[in-house]
Amino acid sequence: MDQLPARDPVSGPRSLLDRLFDQGLLVRTGVDGLYGRSGEFESVVEAVDRIATRLGAGDGAESLRFPPGMSRPAFERSGYLKGFPNLAGTIHCFCGNDADHARLLACIEAGTDWTGGQAASEIVLTPAACYPLYPVAAARGALPEGGLLFDLQSYCFRHEPSLEPTRMQMFRMREYVRMGSPDQVLAFRELWLERGTAMMRELGLPIAVDPANDPFFGRAGRMLANNQRAQGLKFELNVPVNSEDKPTACLSFNYHQDHFGTIWDIRQADGEVAHTACVGFGLERITLALLRHHGLDIEAWPDAVRDRLWG
Amino acid sequence: MVLPEDIRDTLKSVAALTEVVDSLGEDDNLFDRGLDSFGSVQLMLALEERYNIEFPDNLLNRRSFSTIRIIVETVSKLTVSAAA
User: Fold this and answer.
1) Do B62 and A227 touch (CB under 8 A)?
2) Contact A174, A161 (CB under 8 A)
3) Which of A34, A134, A166, A275 fits as disulfide partner to A248, beta carbons 3.0 to 4.6 Å?
4) Domain around B70
């Protein structure tokens, strides 16, 4: 069993992450960004998730839940590796024989690398809740006249170890995804910008909605990021959690144009390539924002906030 | 010296433009003719390799790759500064 990281000395101010550990809200695993959650923490995550459900209840979204792994061929086709090779997580497994097994155990015994014989499986960790959806939607054929709307939630993985509690490697993303004409999906995004802003204000959180870009990799990524900002394709709803200078994106509102429609050949009813957009709720991030601003004692949160979450 | 025909030749290596390169005017917007974001990255890398240049961060945007004329101007400046 790996040793868990030593607790920081008590001298000096405790970081938010340390205080979350101290309070038992998050549980150390020995890996930065990979944490257990307490029942109390989960009660907030679930309450935020329910609010997202209520906000979208009248829209007629089809609810789907995928496991946190997706098909590797679908992942490859999605284009994720073009923009984010550094964040992707693949699942590798032992596929050897008895001799390979013996070598593996010998490596572990000797404390040397045992992973060289692992082979890529057919599964990749889901990088965003909507990624498994597109091939499923495409397989149904052309969209109906009014387009389609989906409701998703999934654990997601991004390989970015960090001591900021808001940058977890495995976290849950709740999403609504709209597919249809450009007008339909842009109207959807506007609606959720309003809904998301109102929700966070009612939860007593200081917010700002800002143009944003995805964290594309490398120099090519800088160009993709500049393009994304210039075209106003992504907005984030930010809340100061770790610091005022670098607020945390708790919700994001994304217009993919025809990116996924083209990749997956998703067609509108009239045969044109479908456009897509999504709103994503970072469930742990919203929970952490609430803990940061209302305190680590959830029982002591303002009545209005508790009523909104559990009333 | 950077010639429009050389840029046209480089554009042929970008899958999204291969079919339309010969009908492109020097001021046609390449993004209106099928170039997408990933295609513009391919184009940037192809130009950097062909002319042995590096686009600085302030030129990594859609405008720099939007028309043949702008690409000629931009690459010309970068090749001059690379040679200096």
Assistant:
1) yes
2) no
3) A166
4) 4-83
- B37/A228 CB distance under 8 A: yes
Q: Integer distance in angstroms from the first to the last C-alpha of chain B?
A: 14
For residue A92, the 8-state DSSP code is E
The closest CB to that of B61, out of A219, A223, A259, belongs to A223
**What's the number of domains chain B is made of?**
1
Mark B40-65 as b/e (b = at least 16 C-beta within 10 Å).
bbbbbbbbeeebebebeeebbbbebb
What is the distance of C-alpha B44 from the center of its chain?
6
* pLDDT, tens digit only, all 84 positions of chain B: 889 999 999 999 998 898 899 999 999 999 999 998 889 999 999 999 999 999 999 999 999 999 999 999 999 999 987 776
**Do A215 and A107 sit in the same domain of this protein?**
no
CATH number of the domain that B53 lies in? 1.10.1200.10
**Inter-chain CB proximity B44 and A82 less than 8 Å:** no
pTM: predicted TM-score of the whole model, two decimal places: 0.91
Rounded Cα distance, A263 and A134, in Å: 9
Cβ-defined contact of A220 to B44 (cutoff 8 Å): yes
Q: Which residues pair with A255 in a beta bridge?
A: A277
